[in-house]
Design a protein that fits this description.
By secondary structure, the chain is mainly α. The protein has 10 helices and 5 strands; from the N terminus they run ααββαααβααββααα. The strands form 2 sheets. A 3-stranded antiparallel β-sheet has the order 3-5-4. A two-stranded antiparallel ribbon has the order 1-2. A hairpin with a 5-residue loop joins strand 1 and strand 2. The two termini are 32 Å apart.
Length: 235
């Protein structure tokens, strides 16, 4: 099992192959500050790790949304500098959720390229159980918005049942929040033209998603802090 604390093991050529970009692109991103520098090993060889792969995947998703390089720089510049691989995967999932339809049909090879790692049959089945991928003959229908997060969950030391139960809880409460927010927006624009409603929805979508992510992260940190301090309500 791979962990986030493992030493970087990828050369720049291997990182480029895993991420599906050129070595020149990686170096360019490094000069612009979009990627952290590699760790320098023996013989002055740079070594890259999972954080670099996760950042490249996030940059790719931002580009897919039509963001310019300058806009990507601003977006990444607003993120905390110490984001973990899982945090970056969550950010990518948030960005991918801005798209109206993120489900695509890809080959096994393309699925693994986008995952940033090889996937054995058991791991593919776990992703299917999380509704991240679905077998479609010899191909796979993949939810691009959830793939990064799903792959990160493969390394979480929790049972599949616990992960699925957590997913069900999140889906239930996110749908309830979406319903309440939708009702508020409907009441706010009840007198407007339908085109204005669509425009407002498109504008608000990424803002609302980001707000939900931020408030949820803060709430979860508070809950975990209380739990670890032995002050939780179930203590």
């Amino acid at each position: 099992m791979t962990t986030e604390t493992e030493e970087p093991t990828l050369t720049i050529d291997e990182l480029a192959a895993r991420a599906g970009v050129t070595v020149r692109t990686i170096r360019f991103y490094g000069t612009r500050g979009l990627l952290p520098p590699p760790e320098i090993g023996p013989r002055r060889v740079g070594h890259y790790g999972r954080e670099h792969l996760a950042r490249l995947a996030l940059i790719e998703e931002l580009q897919r949304q039509g963001m310019t390089l300058a806009a990507i720089e601003r977006y990444l510049g607003q993120l905390p500098p110490d984001l973990s691989v899982r945090d970056l995967a969550i950010q990518r999932a948030v960005v991918a959720s801005w798209a109206p339809d993120t489900v695509e049909t890809v080959s096994r090879e393309e699925l693994q390229r986008r995952a940033g790692r090889p996937l054995d049959d058991e791991e593919v089945e776990r992703l299917a159980a999380m509704d991240v991928v679905e077998r479609d003959g010899g191909s796979f229908r993949v939810d691009a918005g959830l793939l990064g997060l799903g792959v990160a969950l493969l390394d979480v030391p929790l049972s599949e049942e616990t992960i699925l139960a957590a997913r069900a809880t999140l889906v239930e409460h996110s749908r309830a929040a979406a319903h309440d927010l939708s009702r508020l927006l409907r009441d706010a624009v009840a007198e407007r033209d339908a085109r204005d409603v669509k425009s407002l929805s498109a504008h608000m979508h990424p803002l609302v998603v980001q707000a939900l992510l931020t408030t949820f992260q803060r709430s979860l940190k508070e809950e975990l802090r209380e739990w670890l301090d032995g002050e939780g309500p179930d203590r």
